[in-house]
Amino acid sequence: MEIFTKKLTAMDIQRGLVLPRCSLDRLQSFHGTIELSTIFESAAGNRLVGPVTIHCSTRSGDVAFTTGWYALARDAGLTSGDTVTFYQEVNGEARYKLKLRNVGSS
Subcellular localization, per the record (predicted)? Predict the structure, then answer.
């Protein structure tokens, strides 16, 4: 189930990925911080890294990916204009999937 798709900005990469407000009703309810075991894939479905844990926390009234997200964004070479789609997909390794589409890819 798709939770959200977002075109990244420089702020998303540098300060944490702020989740679109419309996605909050599709994400489990929480207060404070939760850890999301996530598989990260390219648009072609190739796994970029093993399952990672992304911390999702409330910040200034927004929900954002923070710890774990920064290293993931850096290691994957994410840039402003790339698009990420976040899914809930229960399987043996992780509960979530984050799929990347780079600016130059079709």
Answer: Nucleus
Do 85 and 45 touch, CB atoms closer than 8 A? no
The bridge status of strand 62-65 relative to strand 17-18 is: antiparallel
- The correct answer on CATH 2.60.40.1120 for the domain covering 2-101 is no
- Find, among 70, 96, 95, the residue nearest to 11 by Cα: 70
Count CB atoms within 10 A of the CB of residue 86.
Answer: 24
pLDDT at res. 45: 72
Q: What is the pTM of this model?
A: 0.77
Per-residue pLDDT tens digits for 52-85: 677 777 766 777 888 788 888 887 888 999 999 9
Domains of the chain, residue spans:
2-101
Sheet holding 83-88, edge to edge: 2-7, 83-88, 96-101, 33-42, 47-59, 62-65, 17-18
